[in-house]
Amino acid sequence: MTADREIKDEELGGVAQDPEQALRLRRSLRTIAAATSLDPALRDMAQSVLSGNVDVKDAFQDPRYTEAVYQRLHEMRRAAENQTYAEQQSSKAQFGAWDARQQAELDRERVERDAPVHGSGGGRSGRPARHFP
Q1: What does the pLDDT read at residue 29?
Q2: 20-38 burial, b for 16+ CB within 10 Å, e for fewer?
Q3: Per-residue pLDDT for 4 more than 80?
Q4: With CB atoms 3.0 to 4.6 Å apart as the test, which of 1, 59, 125, 126 could cross-link to 121 if both were Cys?
């Protein structure tokens, strides 16, 4: 990502219902932004949201982005329908390994997010910590 700044989980509070959902949304946006196999419009949307240049609600309503999402979902469905049984089993195994890695990374990020902050100000940036309502 080329942006100097990346939004914080708290900045996704308008669409995320809690800190856990915000963490997962931000991680998903990072994944999309870095996936060179995806439509450039999707990567652009993710990068724009992560940099704070586009509000996540606006991005979800932009026809360029929603069309790219629907196109990708269609491609995924078609690919899944054309898989052989052996390919399905292989995909399940690969997903299980990927999911375990993702869970470990999420656990690490939760620990970092929830770790007590020492020093003045309460937040890691020196500003008071903001919390979801």
Answers
A1: 93
A2: eebbbbbeebeebbeeeeb
A3: no
A4: 126
